[in-house]
Amino acid sequence: MTSFGDLLGPQPVRLPGDPEAEEGIAGGEDPRKIAAESPTASIAWAALAEAALEDGDTIAAYAFARTGYHRGLDQLRKNGWKGFGPVPFDHEPNQGFLRCVAALTRAAQTIDEVDEYERCLELLNECDPHATTALGLA
Description:
single chain, mainly alpha
């Protein structure tokens, strides 16, 4: 049984992460520097997107979040994800991708891109039903 109780569903994907990028972000390093040094690290793109949202720069936030989202999709696929199934928020290396999806959700809502907003919200709920609450979207 998967951690979300689905007997027939795929096992949760737990990304290996990027410890150097994750430690840099946690330590307050400049996310632009980390994104340049580790462009596949969704956590850096998430930090950039969230900062842009805080600054009111929705278009930059959207772009940063979309970049991190696509980098995260690449990593998920490399780790066996087939486009569906659990991506637990409580596994810290998954949080960069999920934070990017949340930032993209917020940015899409701000610019009234309803289809993208709904798609991203649905993706978060499918990845982990608790992610929207953990990310402040519920």
